[in-house]
Amino acid sequence: MADTLLDDVGDLLREAADQVVLPLFRKLDDGDVTEKAPGEVVTVADRRAEELLSAGLRRIRPGSRVVGEEGVADDPALLRHLRDDGDVWLVDPVDGTANFAAGKRPFALMVALLTGGRPTAGWILDPLAETLAMGRADEGTLLNGRPVDSTTAVPATGDLRGAAMTTFLPPETRDRVRAGGRRLGELLPGQHCAGREYLDILTGEQQFVLFWRTLPWDHAPGALLVRAAGGVARRFDGVDYHPADDGRGLLVASSEQVWAEVHEALLGS
What we know:
By secondary structure, the chain is an alpha+beta fold. The chain has two domains: 5-147, Fructose-1,6-Bisphosphatase, Chain A, domain 1, CATH 3.30.540.10; 157-267, D-Maltodextrin-Binding Protein, domain 2 (3-Layer(aba) Sandwich), CATH 3.40.190.80. The protein is 35% helix and 26% strand. The chain is built from eight helices and 14 strands. The strands form three sheets. The protein has a seven-stranded mixed sheet, sandwiched between helices. A five-stranded mixed sheet has the order 11-10-12-14-13, sandwiched between helices. The longest helix has 20 residues, at 5-24. The termini are far apart.
């Protein structure tokens, strides 16, 4: 029997978007948006979508565990399961919640599957753009059903385009990144939606993205998909990213060559 995992989870993401997230877009009441931490909002769409996705993912893989962004907000101890032996789902029900709450795009729904502590599959859906990326580690990435190779047509260093989330960077690193950006084609401020940043690498809209904060549900799906398409996702010191690692700083690029060139430009001495 054919393995339908990729399509099953993709269909589940579309269901959550169609039934929960999109009906609430630009229709939230004041009581539908609350602050779960200083400066960090959550909406009823986040909570309802996580409930729908969690139930559906457990049906797809009976006996699996779900570690969702909103679940962790209530019980941070759930993060200990990211290196469990079995199947563990990482869920970001609405990535880009601040955009969503403000009635702006982009936002995305994201899922990653870890098996035995190893990321094995990932999904990102931008429902407004009708863009779905999904793939398996070492088996490739599909973008709306078509295989993606992010290593093709690498621009020259002076033409590279990408984003850097500089807000939370240490001041010295922030200054170095901003200065180094002048060596590249374009350094963008970011879209407040990690999922869209990863999709833009897969579509070729940009070749890299730099983050400081690396919460696992924000990065596990996209890091896997970019790697499966031929790219890299590494800490600033060159160590491969893993969602269970409690670290800061992440540079994601469409290829080894791009990672090295951007790292030298933005983070080199």
